[in-house]
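Entry type: protein chain
Record version: 2
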Amino acid sequence: MDDDAPAVRYDAAAGTLHVRLAGGEEITVAGLGPDVAFWHEGNGGRGGALWLSAEQADVLSKMIDYILQKVRISAPSQQALQALAPHVAQLRDELQAAAAGPGADAYYGDDAGA
């Protein structure tokens, strides 16, 4: 992962949101609490955040692939799963890389020193 790439990290235990802007500047917002809601506004409307561990993302990705290959579902459901599959697979890959990579803890590690 590019050390200067924009990124957002939320620490629910500390109630802090860390935002790294392009170029590496960081902003921290504290006092949010553990149950703050996150929304994404885009062309497809409003979307909500789903927090997954690497293992959960792996299982979900496999389940989506299995359903698409083996289970008869309605066309709208198939389209929704086909659109979701690459997002879940990308999240799975990123979480697995973060768990294995030495540079991941620099930004995505704990809040020590923040």
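Comment: Helices lie at 54-70, 75-100, 105-108.
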